[in-house]
From TrEMBL:
It comes from the Bacteria. It comes from Dyadobacter luteus. GO terms for molecular function: DNA-binding transcription factor activity; transcription cis-regulatory region binding. This is LacI family transcriptional regulator. The keyword Flavoprotein does not apply. Residues 4-58 form the HTH lacI-type domain.
Length: 343
């Protein structure tokens, strides 16, 4: 099969090659109708940009570096699917690295990707990252970076997040309405943006329902649930309290699965003795024992939005007048792990 070129598309649609080129790059200069016409024809004819030619012409690698805590996490794997779907359609390749919740690995991954001349970075911070100098220096030098999910407050750039406060608030209020009063919160280090926001939503829901906040019911896992021993120790502390919790809100996939495991090992009935709600995008949440009530995040859409913002930074660096923070709503899927009033 012969390879179709931009000139072929331009000839077939009676457009200039420059118009077709800009439409394929999703340029703001081309109207939506023309973009749609060009993209549909390009897809129909199996057009694929030549990465070598693009790199030589634009002095760009047409590659994007992605740094996430871990791939073996349903939320992040769905994010990657969103990132790759948009990046590929716009002629970019993605190079994915895992920090494994390590600051040192995050820095090493960043340095390697920059040395390989990626055009930009998409980053979700590790749970142990408190020093942001490696990103601050790159942004000062003009490297396009977009943060998603776990984002820094002190760096000016595009960010893509969910409304963690509201998601946590709704989950906590659901537990209160089902009769729970001693609600524990199992979370990540407090300096992570997601942990701060989810803790605030939890505390506000307690306050609005006349329940005093008790710090002893909040446990911080500094490795974000990666270390099983850390997760189990936090759970055992909760279960050993004079008045153990009658419900738990767990703030991530790993924390949720670890919490569920400890409850089963201790033969604690869910939800009769302790109800459980997790922040999780596990696809089999309804198949767990019992089926898990979960705060679900629109990970695919977050990935798509993050890479679109990054490519806009890469291709139009002088057009940015104001950085955006795009926030998505979560949804609460109520299942048996928290359903019904406490007996």
């Amino acid at each position: 099969m012969e390879t179709i070129t931009i000139k072929d598309i331009a000839r077939a649609l009676n457009l200039s090659t420059s118009t077709v080129s800009r439409a394929l790059r999703n340029s703001y200069e081309i109207n939506a109708e023309t973009k749609k016409l060009v993209m549909e024809y390009a897809e129909k004819m199996h057009y694929r940009p030549n990465p070598i030619a693009l790199s030589l012409r634009d002095s760009k690698s047409k590659s994007i570096g992605v740094i996430i805590p871990e791939i073996a996490n349903n939320f992040f794997s769905q994010l990657i699917n969103g990132i790759e779907s948009i990046a590929y359609s716009l002629g970019y390749h993605t190079v994915i690295f895992q920090s494994h919740e390590s600051y040192e690995r995050e820095v090493a991954n960043t340095n390697y990707l920059v040395s390989r001349k990626v055009d930009g970075l998409l980053v979700s911070l590790s749970s142990l990252t408190t020093d942001l100098v490696h990103f601050e220096e790159l942004i000062e030098k003009g490297m396009p970076i977009v943060f998603f999910d776990r984002v820094p407050n002190d760096i000016e750039t595009h960010k893509v997040v969910v409304d963690n406060f509201l998601g946590s608030y709704e989950a906590t209020e659901h537990l209160i309405q089902s009769g729970r009063r001693r609600i524990a919160h199992l979370t990540s280090p407090i300096y992570l943006s997601i942990a701060t926001e989810r803790l605030a939503g939890y505390k506000k829901a307690l306050e609005d329902n006349g329940i005093a906040f008790d710090e002893s019911y909040v446990k911080y896992c500094h490795h974000g649930g990666k270390l099983t021993t850390e997760n189990e120790a936090a759970m055992q502390e909760l279960l050993s309290m004079p008045e153990p919790p009658d419900a738990i809100l767990a703030a991530s996939d790993r924390l949720t699965s670890g919490c569920l495991s400890v409850l089963h090992k201790n033969h604690i009935r869910i939800p009769e003795e302790i109800a459980l709600v997790g922040f999780t995008n596990i696809g089999v949440a309804d198949l767990l024992n019992p089926p898990l009530t979960a705060v679900v995040q629109p990970a695919m859409e977050m990935g798509q939005q993050a890479v679109e913002l990054l490519i806009r930074l890469i291709e139009n660096p002088k057009k940015i007048s104001k950085f955006e923070t795009r926030s998505f709503k979560t949804s609460l899927m109520v299942r048996e792990s928290s359903a019904g009033s406490r007996s």
